[in-house]
């Protein structure tokens, strides 16, 4: 489209790290710094993706955060080639140190050439040793700025809220220093599914991240092999939205089945087209499954 259609968009930040190092609690703490969240005050839904509005040098700046909890959406998305994140916040508990999933997470980020900000969490705890974390991570090529390297490390506590503003600032500074965050709001809407679930009351619900264009209520959408008309768009507070701009995570209600993490979605002109695309994809999946079932059977025959 037109040069004018390219607008700056918020950075999309994935929070990764070893189990129980405090990813979710840190995100909870960050969300409470958010004026918008306070105003909405509604029931927060766990969708694993949130946009907060922060302030840097007096300017309001939104940041989109994606949690990677027990479910392996990030790994699934990576495995399926979906590029979702601009920055990884690597959470390392200061009392526990670098652990296997810490290394796995930083390997993922480095392989995808995604800049890393290290949040050294739980600095409130007895036995916390933030200097040791910095030391340990140099072995993996993450050298703290104060040691002459290029990686921003921030000491934080999700419990006492120490360092949260510094962490937000580190994310924005990293974004400004190394990324060109623009998106075209006028293109055909596209994006990626972060998670899908079957809700008792609302049926299939997909949390999607819009990556380009503007997703609107009423749009005909194909997500993986699911399709449907967007009946409602909900933000992380359960508030209805009329539209979702790039980097906005949003829940989509109205699909006929549940898409999977890492599926891409697109918007088409007509419901019929959405259905045809979804049908073709379902047929492809069935064929692949049949083929692999046949292969299994013939391998078993050999035994
Ligand atoms: P998984 O999603 O299971 O991988 O865990 P997680 O990384 O999201 O950790 P979670 O936020 O669930 O926190 C794990 C535990 O650490 C909880 O009991 C938290 O209350 C605690 N915790 C998290 N952050 C802090 C912190 O800054 N200080 C202290 N003292 N405890 C913390
Ligand atoms: Na946990
Ligand atoms: Mg968690």
TrEMBL record:
Q: Where does GTP bind?
A: 17-24, 67-71, 121-124
Q: Which domain of life is it from?
A: Bacteria
Instruction: State where the protein is found.
Output: Cytoplasm
Question: Locate the Tr-type G domain: which residues?
Answer: 8-180
According to its UniProt entry, what is the function of this protein?
One of the essential components for the initiation of protein synthesis. Protects formylmethionyl-tRNA from spontaneous hydrolysis and promotes its binding to the 30S ribosomal subunits. Also involved in the hydrolysis of GTP during the formation of the 70S ribosomal complex.
Q: What's the family?
A: Belongs to the TRAFAC class translation factor GTPase superfamily. Classic translation factor GTPase family. IF-2 subfamily.
In Swiss-Prot or TrEMBL terms, this protein is called Translation initiation factor IF-2
Q: Which organism is it from?
A: Klenkia soli
Q: Which gene encodes it?
A: infB
Span of the full-length protein shown? 99 to 401 of 611
């Amino acid at each position: 489209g037109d040069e004018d259609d390219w607008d700056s968009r918020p950075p999309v930040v994935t929070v990764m790290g070893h189990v129980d190092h405090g990813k979710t609690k840190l995100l909870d703490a960050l969300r409470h710094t958010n004026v918008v969240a306070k105003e909405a005050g509604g029931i927060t839904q766990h969708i694993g993706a949130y946009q907060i509005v922060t302030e840097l040098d007096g300017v309001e700046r939104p940041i989109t955060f994606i949690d990677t909890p027990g479910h392996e959406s990030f790994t699934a998305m990576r495995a399926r080639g979906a590029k979702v994140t601009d920055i990884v916040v690597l959470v390392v508990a200061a009392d526990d140190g670098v652990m296997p999933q810490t290394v796995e997470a930083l390997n993922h980020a480095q392989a995808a050439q995604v800049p890393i900000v290290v949040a050294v969490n739980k600095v409130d705890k007895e036995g916390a040793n933030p200097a040791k974390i910095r030391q340990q991570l140099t072995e993996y090529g993450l050298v703290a700025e104060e040691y002459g390297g290029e990686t921003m490390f921030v000491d934080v506590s999700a419990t006492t809220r120490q360092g949260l503003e510094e962490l937000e600032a580190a994310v924005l500074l990293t974004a400004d220093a190394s990324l060109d965050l623009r998106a075209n709001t006028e293109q055909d809407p596209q994006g990626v599914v972060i998670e899908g679930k079957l809700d008792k009351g609302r049926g299939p619900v997909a949390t999607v991240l819009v990556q380009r264009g503007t997703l609107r209520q009423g749009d005909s959408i194909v997500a993986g092999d699911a399709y449907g008309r967007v009946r409602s768009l909900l933000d992380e507070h359960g508030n209805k939205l009329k539209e979702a701009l790039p980097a906005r995570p949003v829940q989509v209600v109205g699909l006929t089945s549940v898409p999977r993490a890492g599926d891409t979605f697109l918007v088409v002109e007509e419901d019929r087209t959405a259905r045809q695309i979804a049908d073709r994809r379902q047929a492809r999946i069935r064929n692949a499954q049949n083929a692999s079932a046949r292969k299994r059977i013939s391998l078993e025959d050999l035994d």
